[in-house]
């Protein structure tokens, strides 16, 4: 979408109501053209004698998805000039719309997000459809609302609710918006514009109140109470997002309006918005926004004009942790699911897990008991393949055993209909190997979920050289329906996420064997923004899994795998992670982790076996150095994944890192972050460590080439080299 697109129109009815329509598909975003046109159209309506009142609405059932996010980059790289601060909030919304001598009513259908809701809040009343989404999600882009939202929303719904809506970026639906006072009435889509017309005339005739949101005070808490709420929000925000400044700026701007009045608040908001727009956080989060939407654009697949086929029934093989999680994700999105197990005991356990997953939603108030019962009816258990005769897709989620999987895929071919997609949830095994005894290679695909599968947002779609584009399209569609972000990758050991991140723990183990403290590493990595450090993660995943997947990498990439005995030694002693309540940490009955001095003995023993000694330089490492010694090897492996064409574009790997590993989105993803450091710097650091500590750190040729040219790592992969 370009910032030079979009317009507004004015249609004046016989009743004297002028309908201003925002038109900028697909979401009627507010480009500068739309905003300039909105100003002109509103001024024209105010000048015209035949217009008594004005309704603002959006074309095609969508009010507006907010300011045009694609303009952010252009403002940042100065290819377009941003208007002066306050042009929209003060000169258009406050001084033309809110201060108008004719009533404005917003007719909100579909969505009113960010600047969209800010336009609606500038009006004197709002009518919404019941399912419309209304919210201020700007913080998730590293900015604050910049068209008056920080001032209008607290005055319409109270400070506490406004803060919640802005800090979480979560929208509310029309019905809730009505109960909050954000909208004045709810009407069906068919009745929406007529209700808004009538409402506008009623305001004119003084039958309804003429309210300027910026000056409303009845919903505002007292000054003392307001300060308490704002200070509490500051404490919570510092705790939850210690690396982020913009949520605190948002709170300060709201406070300015409460203390000094909304005009002062609007000025402060405009100035803060301008500064935040240029921040690294905003640049990273905007990159992340478009990268996330870009994962479903796969050259040679999604540009062929193929339409996804309808998937009604899905069979899942294996009711373990993964299988039951996948089944939960599917039934939650209304797919009929058959869960197959090898005996009744395992089957009941699998069904029990699915029930447990749903029950936890009921407990948290996210699901009603009726919905729970209804959802569960979509799940059927099975001990044989008879019920597979009409399934549209099978997802195999059994243990990682090649010959078992080969047998299963050859059985599936016999029982499933010829159109059925044959997917495997393997996290490491080569799909070509799995399909070796199967003729329908074009239907074989990887559907790699992350645990817990009904919670984690990423779905790695792994295609082989033979997987048909139609099958990829179908799985992309299922991914979207079950609310996952799908990333299409090529077939290799570990695919994208596990492959990129295998050096993460290995680098940490290398450092520990050379004298760095386990807990210092975890602290430095969480301070950087990861949800947990490598050792806490190992405890969570369990040492069994860590050793098994580590083994795959030793086998496939021996020259660059760091072999440490720390984990095997601990496992021998029945310390296998959180499930045994002992790993790198000890866990109390509430599963709270505490450091354990005992681990020293395993580290010392492992050091003896590896023959390495403590390096006094490393014991004094700064947090920054720890972060780089752990993440630059991850960047190095990511470069290999790019060079081999496992991913179609670097941005897909950014998404994979954020959604599969919890890499902080406000750093834009692994490649985006690496490019902020520069390929030259990364290569020189890796070379330095490679000389000191061995081949584990050796920069790969892709990285070395980029560094030699001073080129970014994210340059598009040569399509001739792509495995996709
Ligand atoms: C000054 C102001 O306070 C600042 C702002 O307003 S900042 C903007 C605030 N608004 C937002 O953050 C909303 C962002 N958009 C969204 O959350 C979602 O896109 C949505 C809920 C609107 C629609 O979701 P969904 O139907 O799943 O479609 P989705 O694929 O996300 O978007 C459709 C297309 O619209 C684009 N789009 C969505 N919102 C956009 C926006 N605000 N600006 C520019 N493009 C936008 C997407 O990039 C996508 O483009 P593509 O088809 O070329 O990939």
TrEMBL record:
Pathway: Lipid metabolism; fatty acid beta-oxidation. Its main location: other. This is Uncharacterized protein. In the central section; belongs to the 3-hydroxyacyl-CoA dehydrogenase family. In the N-terminal section; belongs to the enoyl-CoA hydratase/isomerase family. It comes from the Eukaryota. Keywords: Fatty acid metabolism, Isomerase, Lipid metabolism, Lyase, Multifunctional enzyme, NAD, Oxidoreductase, Peroxisome. GO terms for biological process: fatty acid beta-oxidation. It catalyses: a (3E)-enoyl-CoA = a 4-saturated (2E)-enoyl-CoA; a (3S)-3-hydroxyacyl-CoA = a (2E)-enoyl-CoA + H2O; a (3Z)-enoyl-CoA = a 4-saturated (2E)-enoyl-CoA; (3S)-3-hydroxybutanoyl-CoA = (3R)-3-hydroxybutanoyl-CoA. PROSITE patterns: 3HCDH, ENOYL_COA_HYDRATASE. It is found in: Peroxisome. One of its GO terms (cellular component) is peroxisome. Residues 494-587 form the 3-hydroxyacyl-CoA dehydrogenase C-terminal domain. GO terms for molecular function: (3S)-3-hydroxyacyl-CoA dehydrogenase (NAD+) activity; 3-hydroxybutyryl-CoA epimerase activity; delta(3)-delta(2)-enoyl-CoA isomerase activity; enoyl-CoA hydratase activity; NAD+ binding. Residues 313-491 form the 3-hydroxyacyl-CoA dehydrogenase NAD binding domain.
């Amino acid at each position: 979408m370009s910032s030079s697109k979009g317009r507004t129109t004015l249609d004046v009815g016989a009743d004297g109501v002028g309908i201003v329509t925002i038109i900028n598909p697909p979401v009627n975003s507010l480009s500068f053209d739309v905003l300039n046109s909105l100003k002109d159209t509103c001024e024209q309506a105010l000048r015209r004698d035949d217009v008594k009142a004005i309704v603002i609405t959006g074309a095609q059932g969508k009010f507006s998805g907010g300011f045009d996010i694609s303009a952010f980059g252009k403002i940042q790289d100065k290819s377009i000039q941003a208007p002066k601060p306050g042009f929209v909030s003060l000169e258009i919304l406050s001084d033309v719309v809110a201060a108008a001598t004719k009533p404005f009513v917003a007719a909100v259908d579909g969505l009113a997000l960010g600047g969209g809701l800010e336009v609606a809040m500038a009006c004197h009343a709002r009518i919404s459809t019941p399912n419309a989404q209304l919210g201020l999600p700007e913080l998730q882009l590293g900015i604050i609302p910049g068209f008056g939202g920080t001032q209008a929303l607290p005055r319409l719904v109270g400070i506490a609710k406004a803060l919640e809506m802005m800090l979480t970026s979560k929208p509310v639906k029309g019905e809730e918006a009505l109960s909050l006072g954000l909208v004045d009435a709810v009407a069906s889509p068919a009745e929406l514009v007529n209700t808004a017309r009538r409402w506008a005339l009623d305001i004119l005739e003084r039958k309804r109140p003429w309210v300027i949101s910026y000056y409303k005070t009845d919903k505002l808490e007292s000054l003392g109470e307001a300060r308490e709420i704002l200070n509490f929000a500051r404490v919570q925000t510092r705790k939850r997002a210690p690396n982020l400044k913009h949520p605190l700026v948002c709170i300060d701007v709201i406070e300015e309006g409460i203390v000094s009045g909304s005009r002062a608040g609007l000025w402060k908001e405009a100035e803060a918005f301008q500064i935040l727009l240029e921040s690294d956080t905003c640049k990273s989060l905007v990159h992340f926004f478009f990268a996330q939407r870009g994962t479903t654009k796969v050259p040679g697949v999604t540009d062929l004009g193929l339409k996804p086929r309808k998937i009604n029934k899905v069979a899942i093989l294996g009711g373990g942790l993964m299988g039951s999680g996948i089944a939960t994700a599917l039934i939650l999105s209304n797919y009929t699911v058959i869960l197959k197990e090898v005996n009744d005991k395992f089957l009941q356990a699998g069904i029990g897990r699915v029930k447990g997953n749903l029950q936890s939603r009921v407990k948290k108030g996210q699901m009603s008991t009726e919905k729970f019962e209804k959802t569960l009816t979509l799940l059927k258990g099975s001990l044989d393949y008879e019920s597979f005769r009409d399934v549209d897709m099978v997802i195999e989620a059994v243990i990682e055993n090649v010959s078992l999987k080969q047998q299963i895929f050859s059985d599936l071919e016999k029982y499933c209909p010829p159109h059925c997609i044959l997917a495997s949830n393997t996290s490491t095994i080569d799909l070509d190997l799995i399909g070796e005894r199967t003729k329908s290679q074009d239907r074989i695909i990887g559907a790699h979920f992350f645990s817990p599968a009904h919670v984690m947002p990423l779905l790695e779609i792994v295609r082989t050289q033979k997987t048909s584009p139609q099958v990829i399209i179908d799985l992309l569609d299922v991914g979207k329906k079950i609310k996952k972000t799908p990333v299409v990758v090529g077939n290799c050991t570990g695919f994208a996420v596990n492959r990129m991140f295998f050096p993460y723990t290995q680098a940490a183990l290398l450092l520990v064997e050379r004298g760095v403290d386990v807990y210092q590493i975890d602290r430095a990595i969480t301070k950087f923004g990861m949800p947990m450090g490598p050792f806490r993660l190992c405890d969570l995943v369990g040492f069994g899994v860590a050793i098994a997947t580590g083994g795959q990498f030793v086998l496939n990439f021996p020259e660059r795998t760091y072999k440490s005995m720390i984990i095997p030694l601990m496992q021998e002693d029945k310390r296998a992670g959180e499930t045994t309540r002992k790993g790198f940490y000890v866990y109390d009955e509430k599963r709270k982790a505490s450091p354990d001095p005992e681990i020293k003995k395993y580290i010392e023993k492992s050091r003896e076996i590896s023959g390495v000694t403590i390096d006094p330089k490393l014991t004094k490492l700064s947090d920054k150095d720890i972060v780089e010694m752990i993440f630059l090897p991850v960047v190095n492996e990511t470069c290999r994944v790019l060079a081999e064409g496992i991913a179609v574009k670097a941005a897909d790997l950014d998404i994979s890192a954020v959604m599969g590993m919890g890499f902080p989105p406000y750093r834009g993803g692994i490649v985006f972050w690496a490019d902020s450091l520069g390929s030259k710097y990364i290569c020189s650091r890796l070379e330095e460590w490679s000389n000191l500590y061995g081949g584990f750190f050796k920069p790969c040729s892709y990285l070395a080439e980029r560094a030699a040219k001073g080129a970014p790592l994210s340059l598009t992969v040569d399509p001739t080299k792509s495995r996709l």
